[in-house]
């Protein structure tokens, strides 16, 4: 989706976002609805009882300000609460309602996920409201949800139902939706292997206060063919990561060494789903491409490249099963799966905060591990070719998932030191 979504028709915006939600398994064929209110006060909304897996722009309904309906289907049965939200909050221009599994889990035990589980979620999601159960599709449901939005919330857990989120536009609402479901998933998975730990408001404020774009700007920038090719590769890997749930809209940094210790890196403040080739930031001789803000983690990437000549690509992201270990201080023992150990060896963890205090960087950047978890923040994966690094990320997340799921079956039994040594001799010598 173009970053200037005002130039995209609401029909197309809605179908693209519902397609992302459906393919990520965050709603069902019949579940969930999305709407946008335009400058004329007309509301564009998904139809009732139409397959969310094959929705087309022509399926989207327009409910005019005067109540008349344009379109070949009926509007969503939940339209009343969409309308109620817009009436309660003129600042909200888009609404997403869905039944993503983790957030539904919270709704049926009548709890609200604590977004202090990771660094940026509190800022993105804001405080979370809670709407008592009312009959789906009823005016009563619209009233209780509107009451929560009237309190200033932009995200509301619906008791025994799901979640509803608003935004200044559809991209804003989707970022909030994706981040909140990620928080819920991470808490759920973490609870299967330990006790989730939460960041303090002070720690989060310190994270948010990190300087961005502090590198001096280049006077001129050149774009040789090899550099452009690497930009495209980064964009493809970021898109693939988003599609597979290994990265979310609001967080994820990818970089590639370009020449010597110069590198290309993703920007800050750009939705990861919508990343384009000209968003990528070139870092050369300690300077940044003019007019662009590189990731706040740029200095980590720079130091990893400076001190590890065999590392040529880095992915720094949040994926739910890996972060289950990162939020519980639990050890991710990949010796349970021989193939995973061959790729990753042992995965270490560092305390939260060391990733943005430059004077405390040595445990992150010296002798950089293939995979390293930063508690309550992210996982760093390093490698040679970017596709190889992405493969390591997939292997690490799949391994973490297998261990989380296997934990409910009984005691995990890793391979022993002798077996590890056999692997080392055969595959790493």
TrEMBL record:
InterPro entries: Aldolase_class_II_sugar_metab, Aldolase_II/adducin_N, Aldolase_II/adducin_N_sf. GO terms for cellular component: cytosol. Residues 12-188, 232-404 form the Class II aldolase/adducin N-terminal domain. GO terms for biological process: pentose catabolic process. GO terms for molecular function: aldehyde-lyase activity; metal ion binding. It comes from the Bacteria. The keyword Manganese does not apply. Keywords: Lyase, Metal-binding. The keyword Lyase applies. This is L-fuculose-phosphate aldolase. It comes from Algibacter pectinivorans.
